[in-house]
Write a structure and sequence with these properties.
The protein has about 1600 residues and is an alpha+beta fold. It contains 66 helices and 38 strands. Strands 20, 21, 22, 23, 24, 25 and 26 form a 7-stranded mixed sheet that branches. Strands 6, 7, 8, 9, 10 and 11 form a 6-stranded antiparallel sheet that branches. Strands 32-31-30-29-35-38 form a 6-stranded mixed sheet. Helix 43 crosses helix 46, helix 59 (about 1475-1485) runs parallel beside helix 62 (about 1520-1545) and helix 62 packs parallel to helix 65 (about 1585-1600). The N and C termini lie far apart (about 150 Å).
Length: about 1600
């Protein structure tokens, strides 16, 4: 079938060719050419034809046809050319050789031999014999197949051969010339063939006439038989000549020459005589031989490219004397080599003679074996070798007897001037390489050159090589056969034999024999050729290391032949080859150039191995041999992933560093990248490599600072001096800056775990650096107090802390390039968020550097946890511990800072479920915080279950809506949400009121729209979704969604907008893309936007999306002024940029900030940590079990939540009050910001706070501070106050110390009060509680105002505040006002609170100015009851305008819904301040406070002092000084009213009746009284005066008050 298909293809091609010929040639010519083509291509392989284009086949056919047209048989035709399309009309990639010759034998073979001899590869060969008829001019007349019936008699052979393309004309001409010579040889030999056969016949006849007497008759008969045998096509005759004896010399008979001998060429002029006919003088001795054999020294050019044979037949006269010789020259035919020598005359006799000499029984084993040796003996040698020598050699071969022996037999052929060497070697070691090495060795030893070789392989264990080596001279050399045989044996020694010996030497005999079973046949031929057995033993040891668990083993060595600095590296690997793409980047990063690579397959029975041998060169010419161990260790670490594979690794070779030193420098470089240093990592690596001495000195500096074994004073300074000296020599400014930054970073590093080891004694594969950022130039702001940077190949991370006691979450970041920037933004928010708790802000973040590609969720989580664990360990590695109250520094860590024991972490994005993992490591490390280390673990407070973050944020929402007159728990309100019900903040938040009308929400997958929701049904459905283990908006019941709504995929191309959606979201389009729909939702006129998701969705118009840094949401982000909602609740972080909030707030949207709204989470965590620190002491003491402790924690959940929520509630309240106060006066806020800025505690630009100019503009246009701005300021107000309090004695005040109890649930206060007051953070807790309480009740600038007016410090102001607060029972009054939420308007509540704030502010100032000499507790105990007494009777004490005003205020408050008693107290607040002076006066005058109060109010009423104070208050102020002056006027009037009161009380013989007594006193001072009254009239008249007038008025009042003393 296959043959049929081939022929069909041939016919198809020929048919296409025929069609082309018919189309382009006249019919007769086309027919002729077609007939020629059919015959010519009949035997050409179809494959050769198919690859040709039809154009080229057509062109080639015509070209050959033209070639045939003219041919003179006496002059063979040869054409060699390169077909070119433009020149010939067809083309080929090869050179064409065309030969046209009268047909005769040997043409094709001989042409091919010549082409091969010239090294030309034959690609295709086509040959056809044609019957031709030509005219007298040798033109073609007819051409047919020889088989045709009427074919012409003449035959011509056409040969077309394609060979390698050659374009050199001289070369082509050379080939053509040589081919003509070969064809001449063929013609000559073939032309005389019959004549030469006739000469054989003549020789036979001549021999038959008589048998020379000296010749054995049997030999004579055998000679005749042999010549007859030659005529039976067993010899190809190429030449013949005769020599006749003339005197003592044989002379050639010129008339006898036939065949190629007629050609005048050196190769045919050899005079060869067998060695028996040559004497010691190299003269011919005519010894009768009858027949002799010899080999030519030249390869045949005809028929076969082997060495031709000379067969010489001696001629004898009748007396048996030699009279000459006949020489036949030619080739034995192939049949001779396949025929048994026992069937060849002459040889059969020689074989019999040998067997006779051997004397073996032909039927016996030895006889048969000897016969086998002779049967396969090289045939040419059998003809030429003598019987005795053949016997010796064949018996020598027989004696090997299938043993693994090496034998050498050499026969020198003097006549042919060659050696025939028979070499026997074990077959398993035979190879081309071995043959060539033996051949080269024998050529050297025998002074010969290579001629030819033949190999014989059989079932024998031995291989036989026959080498034909030609003499360099005319005679053979002397040689020692045994010595040569020994050399061959050494060359032939099996590599495996050497391996066995080497393994015994290397492993001992027993183990070597065991290992040999595995490795005997494992090594590939290429390995055996390239490496000796001793090398293999070392390589086996490396392979065994792989079996012991190593993934890679390596060997660095210098080849013996290597003269320069090159080295080789062997890599050993199991199972599969190492892809070069894995290795080459590693080599390149090490600064190495791979010159070459060879893989070796080591295929052992039990295991397959690979050895890769790399030839290496270092770019700087470093000597790898000097750092063998360092390099090897580094390479293994990089391969195992324990070290990064990057450009820093060139420091290993270039600077002679070990892999960990490089890792340390790499860590600093990574840190530079994170702090936005403006040079690439590659540039940094290159710079370090370019300055190896400086790099080594940097490493030395690091070692001197942090190696516990290197702590010797003075050495660091010396090192720094050397480093600075080296740096002076750095010419490049960039390089100098970079290298100095490294020096600076090392000096700014406080601690590192670099010298710590694991339990198994290995260095850790991650490095932690604790730094002091303030010491680093160019550090982005804000600069945290402390920072821990963690670097490893698997994870990088950073932990920023605002102070020693700090807390914040650890985030799993996906921002590999700038995660620190992300964390820095978060820590800024955390810093302000943490204002309500004991610790200052902290934040951490880490990135997974080796997350598997396209990993599923489970794989990602697994890798994330592993990286998180490394990060946590790194943080604890450099943190001090507390053991029994003593600080215990971490092992192998040199500290350049003070004790630092407080380190806590918390959950954040990506790490919500990781707290137990962190706590397990904390317990493993024996960290004193135990499972308080990470809040929210298994035995901590579950924020999602508690809904604490959402509840805290909901307090903001409720307050915003209360201010708008909406009760979120009773009134319906519309919401657009960000998130889904599976989320903590969103899900819990949307379940905090059943009045929510959630009209729309979106997460990263879906958009939920419910244009007209049923609030109750929707609430129940949201509850159902929240309770599911995992849910999305797709799970929302479609039946419950109102008409026109639905759940839409965010991956949809567009969404149809229903009329209901158009109405609720204010959309006009009929279709929108998902992103555009979300934008419309964010811009919709709804009551609330609730952010419970991840991402930033609102910015300011002045910000770009790039400024925001949240690429994922660029397409749907809107500007703050585009928000049309009434309220924004920020349960999630970073939903709006700060500037976006400010823009929205300026547009009337009520919004605080994320860190205000969602502070509940961090507050709850801090409560948990502080509670655990407290009760863990009880556990350690043995008074409580772990189980009881965990139960107690659970029991306190609700109370902890209430404490946290109260903080959220109070803080938002303080913000609203501060906003109102800012409308009354912007100055204190401006001064507060300036103060913080001057102290370097705030960066106005970074916090986006308005400039002084903007604030002044707002003040002039009656605008105040905005809530987002105040949110920032309240945090700084608390944190700065907290800081000052911690550094003061205030937390140690026995009374103020009780604030400690405010943090803890009641059960702990009752049961463990003693332990509570021994709490490790008691001072910090007290400071935090006082700061929170003060700012929450008194506002942001309270402390600033008092500092301005009194010059007192923050701590003293706080102490005075506590006295004033508790003396006036502010807490109770405040709580009563708060209880009126949703009962009275928030405006009324705030007005009452502002009254109380003013009272306490004035009272605080009063206590600051009085130096009572009492303790805090004594002062409160003295003033408190007396103030309460005066407060109760205030209505009776007031008179006149004062009483009227009080009464009016009471009624106003009562009408607003305020209880009467509270209304009376609050209404009296402006007058209660005076009670302080009254009580102090009573103390000094020894009167009852009630009595003093009566007089105080009466004299005030008579002198209209309350009205006067009112006028002072109404003074407009332009600056801080006027404000201070106004405050001073009020204080002075109060003070003088007290002085007047005292004066009245001291009146002698005065009436006991208050009114009469006051009247008496005024009468006594009538003149001064009249002057005062005139002044009052002046003020009432409204004439100009202002501050000057009131200054005079105060002076008059002083005169009146002091009139008694003057008298």
């Amino acid at each position: 079938m296959h043959y049929v298909a081939i022929e069909e293809s041939r016919r198809d091609l020929l048919k296409q060719l025929q069609e082309r010929l018919d189309a382009r040639l006249e019919p007769a010519r086309a027919a002729d050419v077609e007939a020629f083509a059919r015959h010519f291509y009949a035997t050409v392989p179809v494959e050769d034809l198919i690859d040709r284009r039809l154009d080229d086949l057509y062109g080639a056919t015509l070209s050959i046809w033209q070639f045939l047209q003219h041919h003179d048989r006496q002059h063979p035709k040869v054409r060699i050319f390169n077909p070119d399309f433009e020149e010939h009309g067809w083309q080929s990639n090869h050179t064409f050789v065309a030969v046209l010759h009268e047909d005769m034998p040997f043409l094709v073979d001989s042409v091919r031999i010549e082409l091969n001899r010239r090294g030309l590869t034959v690609h295709a060969i086509q040959n056809a014999v044609f019957a031709v008829a030509r005219d007298g001019q040798h033109q073609l007349k007819a051409l047919t197949s020889p088989k045709d019936e009427h074919a012409p008699e003449a035959r011509e052979s056409l040969i077309v051969i394609e060979v390698d393309r050659h374009t050199d004309p001289e070369s082509l001409a050379n080939i053509e010339r040589n081919l003509h010579e070969v064809l001449r040889d063929v013609r000559t030999a073939v032309g005389d063939y019959d004549a030469m056969c006739g000469q054989i016949t003549s020789a036979i006849q001549e021999l038959e006439k008589n048998c020379p007497p000296q010749i054995d008759p049997d030999d004579h008969e055998e000679a005749i038989a042999f010549l007859e045998w030659l005529l039976k096509d067993n010899f190809t005759f190429l030449g013949y000549d005769e020599y006749l004896l003339e005197g003592s010399e044989l002379q050639r008979d010129p008339n006898s020459v036939l065949g190629v001998f007629r050609l005048d060429q050196p190769r045919y002029r050899e005079r060869i005589r067998t060695e028996e006919g040559v004497d010691e003088h190299n003269d011919y001795v005519l010894v009768p031989q009858l027949l002799s054999f010899a080999k030519s020294a030249h390869h045949s050019r005809v028929h076969r490219p082997t060495y031709p044979d000379y067969i010489t037949v001696d001629r004898y006269d009748d007396d048996g004397n030699v009279i000459g010789e006949r020489r036949f020259f030619g080739l034995f035919t192939a049949t001779v080599y396949n025929e048994s020598p026992r069937n060849i005359p002459l040889l059969r006799r020689k074989l019999k003679a040998v067997t006779d000499i051997a004397g073996f029984n032909p039927q016996g084993h030895n006889g048969k074996q000897l016969l086998q040796v002779l049967e396969v003996y090289p045939r040419d040698d059998l003809f030429q070798i003598g019987t005795d020598e053949l016997a010796t050699t064949s018996l020598g071969i027989l004696n090997i007897r299938e043993r693994r022996q090496v034998r050498l037999f050499i026969r020198a052929d003097v006549s042919g001037k060659f050696y025939s060497c028979l070499v026997f070697v074990p077959r398993d070691v035979f190879s081309t390489d071995l043959r060539q090495r033996i051949q080269n060795m024998l050529c050297d030893e025998l002074d010969a050159h290579f001629g030819d070789f033949n190999t014989y392989l059989s079932e024998s264990v031995l291989a036989r090589i026959q080498l034909i080596l030609r003499f360099n001279g005319d005679t053979p050399s002397q040689y020692d056969l045994k010595r040569l045989e020994g050399k061959v044996a050494r060359l032939s020694r099996s590599w495996r034999d050497d391996l066995h010996a080497a393994m015994i030497e290397g492993f001992g005999e027993e183990r070597a024999n065991h290992l040999l079973d595995n490795f005997h046949d494992a090594f590939s031929a290429s390995y055996r050729e390239d490496f000796n057995a001793r090398t293999a033993v070392f390589d086996i040891q490396h392979l065994l290391n792989l079996d012991n668990g190593d993934t890679l083993s390596l060997s660095l060595y210098r080849p013996l032949e290597e003269q320069a600095g090159g080295m080789n590296l062997k890599l050993f690997h199991r199972e599969s080859q190492i892809p070069l793409s894995d290795v080459l980047p590693m080599m390149e990063n090490l600064g190495l150039r791979v010159i070459g690579e060879r893989p070796y397959d080591i295929n052992a029975p039990q295991q397959r191995y690979w050895i890769h041998d790399f030839e290496l060169e270092h770019s700087q010419g470093a000597n790898l041999g000097d750092m063998r161990d360092t390099f090897s260790e580094a390479f293994k670490r990089i391969w195992a992933g324990e070290a990064d594979n990057d450009a820093f690794n060139r420091l290993i070779v270039g600077a002679g560093l070990d892999w960990r030193e490089v890792a340390m420098l790499r860590g600093y470089a990574r840190y530079l990248k994170q702090i936005r240093f403006g040079m690439s990592q590659d540039y940094i690596a290159a710079t370090l490599a370019n300055y190896p001495v400086i790099t080594q000195t940097l490493v030395e500096l690091f070692r001197l600072r942090f190696d516990p074994a290197q702590q010797q004073p003075g050495q660091t300074d010396d090192c720094l001096a050397r480093l600075n000296e080296h740096l002076e020599g750095v010419a490049s400014l960039n390089d100098d800056q970079l290298l100095r930054r490294f020096m600076e970073l090392i000096q700014a590093t406080l601690r590192t775990n670099y010298y710590q080891k694991t339990d198994d004694g290995r260095f850790k594969d991650y490095i932690a650096y604790k730094l002091e950022p303030s010491k680093v130039t160019g550090m982005p702001k804000p600069r945290p107090a402390y920072e821990i940077f963690v670097c490893s190949p698997r994870v990088e991370g950073v932990h920023l802390r605002g102070g020693k006691v700090a807390r914040g979450g650890l985030r799993w970041s996906d921002r590999l390039e700038d995660f620190r920037t992300e964390v820095l933004g978060l820590v800024k928010a955390q810093q302000v968020k943490n204002a309500v708790i004991v610790p200052v802000g902290a934040k951490g973040g880490f990135v997974c550097k080796r997350m598997p590609e396209n990993a599923d969720r489970e794989t990602q989580q697994k890798e994330g946890i592993a990286c998180y664990q490394i990060f946590i360990r790194a943080l604890l590695d450099v943190t001090d511990n507390l053991v029994g109250g003593d600080v215990v520094p971490p092992k192998s860590v040199v500290r350049h800072d003070d004790d630092d024991t407080y380190l806590v972490v918390a959950a954040d994005k990506g790490t919500a479920t990781f707290s137990d993992i962190a706590n397990a490591i904390s317990v493993e490390y024996g960290h004193w915080l135990g499972d308080a280390f990470a809040s929210g673990g298994a035995n901590g407070y579950d924020h999602k279950k508690m809904a604490i973050t959402a509840r805290g944020a909901w307090e903001s929402v409720k307050r915003h809506f209360r201010n708008l007159g909406v009760n979120t728990q009773q009134d319906l309100f519309t919401v657009v949400g960000i998130g889904d019900m599976a989320g903590d903040v969103f899900g819990n938040g949307m379940l905090l009121s059943d009045k929510i009308q959630l009209v729309g929400a979106f997460n990263h997958l879906h958009i939920f729209v419910d244009p007209n929701p049923d609030a109750a049904a929707a609430f129940a459905e949201r509850q159902r979704l929240f309770d599911l283990p995992r849910s999305s908006w797709e799970d929302y019941s479609a039946e419950l969604i109102s008409q026109g709504g639905g759940v839409f995929s965010r991956s949809a191309k567009s969404i149809a907008i229903s009329p209901e959606m158009q109405q609720v979201f204010g959309i006009t389009e009929a279709r929108l893309s998902p992103n555009d729909l979300i934008r419309a939702m964010l811009k919709a006129q709804v009551d609330l936007i609730w952010n419970g998701g991840i991402g930033t969705y609102v910015k300011s118009a002045d910000e770009t999306d790039a400024d925001v840094g949240d690429k994922a949401n660029d397409a749907l982000r809107i500007n703050g002024k585009e928000l049309n909602c009434r309220v924004v609740g920020e349960g999630g972080n970073l939903g709006l940029t700060q500037r976006g909030r400010m823009e929205a707030a300026a547009n009337g949207v009520r919004v605080y900030t994320d860190f205000i709204d969602n502070a509940g989470g961090v507050n709850c965590s801090d409560h948990e940590v502080n509670i655990k620190i407290l009760i863990d002491e009880v556990v350690k003491r043995g008074d409580m079990t772990d189980k009881q402790r965990n139960q107690l924690l659970a029991d306190m959940t609700d109370e902890v939540a209430n404490l946290v929520i109260l903080d959220n509630y109070r803080q938002t309240q303080a913000l609203d009050l501060s906003e109102i106060l800012s409308h009354q006066g912007m100055g204190p806020y401006r001064r507060f910001i300036s103060e913080l800025e001057a102290a370097g505690q705030i960066d106005r630009e970074l916090e986006f706070l308005p400039t002084d100019e903007v604030l002044k503009e707002r003040a002039s246009s009656d605008q105040g501070m905005r809530l987002p701005e105040l949110s920032v300021l309240i945090s700084y107000a608390k944190s700065t106050l907290k800081g000052d309090l911690i550094n003061s004695e205030v937390p140690d005040d026995p009374y103020i110390h009780r604030h400690l109890e405010r943090l803890f649930p009641a059960v702990l206060t009752e049961r463990y009060q003693g332990e509570m007051y021994e709490h490790r953070l008691k001072r910090e807790i007290v400071a935090t509680q006082v700061a929170n309480d003060l700012v929450d009740h008194m506002g942001i600038v309270f402390v600033r105002r008092l500092m301005d007016s009194t010059g007192a410090g923050r701590a003293d102001i706080a102490r005075a505040y506590v006295v004033a607060r508790d003396a006036f029972n502010l807490a109770d009054l405040w709580a009563q006002i708060e209880a009126l939420d949703n009962q009275v308007s928030s405006r009324v509540q705030y007005s009452m609170m502002l009254d109380l704030m003013r009272l306490v502010r004035r009272a605080t100032r009063w206590f600051l100015r009085q130096h009572l000499g009492l303790s805090t507790q004594d002062t409160i105990e003295y003033f408190g009851p007396r103030l309460a007494q005066l407060q109760e009777s205030i209505g009776e004490l007031l008179s006149g305008e004062e009483q009227q005003e009080w009464q009016a205020r009471c009624e106003e408050l009562e009408q607003a819904g305020v209880p009467a008693s509270l209304a009376a107290t609050v209404a009296a607040a402006p007058r209660l301040y005076a009670s302080l002076g009254i009580i102090q006066a009573a103390r000094l005058t020894n009167e009852k406070p009630q009595r003093v109060a009566e007089v105080f109010h009466e004299i005030g009423s008579r002198l209209e002092l309350p009205w006067m104070i009112q006028q002072v208050t109404r003074l407009e102020v332009r600056d801080a000084w006027q404000a201070q002056a106004r405050e001073t006027f009020r204080d002075d009037i109060d003070r003088q009213q007290l002085a007047l009161t005292t004066s009245v009380l001291k009146l002698e013989a005065g009436s006991r009746d208050t009114q009469e007594r006051v009247a008496q006193w005024l009468e006594q001072h009538a003149e001064l009284h009249r002057r005062w009254c005139r002044l009052i009239e002046e003020v009432r008249s409204g004439s100009e005066g202002g501050f000057a007038l009131f200054a005079v008025a105060v002076r008059e009042l002083v005169d009146l008050a002091e009139s008694d003393s003057e008298a």
